[in-house]
Structure formats: C-alpha cells, structure tokens
Amino acid sequence: EDQVTQSPEALRLQEGESSSLNCSYTVSGLRGLFWYRQDPGKGPEFLFTLYSAGEEKEKERLKATLTKKESFLHITAPKPEDSATYLCAAAGGTSYGKLTFGQGTILTVHP
Amino acid sequence: DVKVTQSSRYLVKRTGEKVFLECVQDMDHENMFWYRQDPGLGLRLIYFSYDVKMKEKGDIPEGYSVSREKKERFSLILESASTNQTSMYLCASSGVPQTYEQYFGPGTRLTVT
User: Are A87 and A38 in contact (CB under 8 A)?
Assistant: First the structure.
C-alpha cells in the first residue's frame, strides 16, 4: 500500500528564518511526487511535480527536491504570506491517475 | 491556466435531504476526482472518473454516488445527507500527458444539520 508521511505537523518560523519540510514516501514505481499549497478554506494550489531522484524545482522562495525515499520543500527567507498548509502527494505505478496524500504541514511565518 | 469550478462555496442542508455538488473543468481533462477533507484525516478520495459515464470507487464511497454525463462535468450526490457528511468537499481534474497532476477547485463547505 502506498504511503506518504509529512513532518513536522506544524512549523512556526520568524520572517527570514529558512527551513525545510519533509515528505517521506513508500510507493511502488513512483510516477511523480507533487507539492501543493492550501490556504484556509480554499482548495489546494498546485506548486511542483518531481519525477526522479535528484530533480529540483524552484518557485520564488520555494525549492522542492527529491530523493529515492523523500522529498523536501525548502523555504528560503520566508515571509508571512508563505503561511499555509503544504501538502505532499505521490503517484504510484499501480494506481493510475490516483494520488496518495500526506497529512500536510501547517506553516506559520511570524513577522 | 486550468480552471476547476464548484457550484457552491458554502452549503447548509438538513439530515435526509438529497444533495448535489457539481464540478466543472475547462481543460478537456479526462480524469476527475471527488475528495473530502476533514481535520486530522487529510484528503480522502470518494470517487473518481476516467472518462464520460465511467466511475470508480475511491477509499470512502459509502453514502455517495457520482454522475459524469459530460466530459467537463462531474457531480457528487449525497442520496440522504447525514451529519457525518459535514465536511469540505474538493473536486480535482487531471489529463494527459501529466496524468497525475491534479488541479483542484475552491471547495464546497457542506454543513448537514
């Protein structure tokens, strides 16, 4: 059974304090690793797709990386507007089109 | 940009009512999904569809049904709403070639009283 685990559950940072969110996955034949941002009361917003170990993607202050067992979302010099829940999801080779989601990390950035 | 819209942002229904939640996507995507999201339980897949008139059960289909008569529209039906179906309902779609890249709608917050 595919599994995705995110840590920490919650993370509080000061503005400008860089950190990383972790996503550990166990899937058969990874087809993709996905990161989403979700603001309170809204639907998840797509951020990145990573397909193979060693791949990296960047967007503004966010950088996502992938190894054979984990993905990291690095946040450099965060701002209060980066506060949100960040969801990680994995697609395995036996589940066409379907994603397995982690529980999410709630990020709060204080000014 | 992919756009997924849902018929209502907030909905309040009474126990026993039949409830329709509608989702429309404008990217000609083949795949559409319905999730519910609850605190502490994360996103759970209710039903999904790979093509018009096709449907597959997800992880928690009990108490729900779906309809997909047109490619762009995917409806979730609660035949007889119950209080334990109070939740945030999210629709998503995906298509080729990025088959697994799902795009979500804004969500419907359903309260059953």
Answer: yes
Which residues numbered 14-73 in B keep a CB inside 8 Å of some CB on A?
31, 33, 40, 42-43, 45, 48, 50, 58
Residue A98: CB atoms within 10 A of its CB come to 20
pLDDT tens digits, A4-22: 999 999 999 999 999 999 9
* Span B100-108, average pLDDT: 94
Q: Are A101 and A79 in contact (CB under 8 A)?
A: no
Asked if residues B29 and B95 have their Cβ atoms less than 8 Å apart, the reply is yes
How far apart CA B58 and CA A60 sit, in angstroms, is: 35
CA distance A55 to chain B (A): 17
Rounded to a whole number, what is the distance in Å from the CA of B80 to chain A's nearest CA? 25
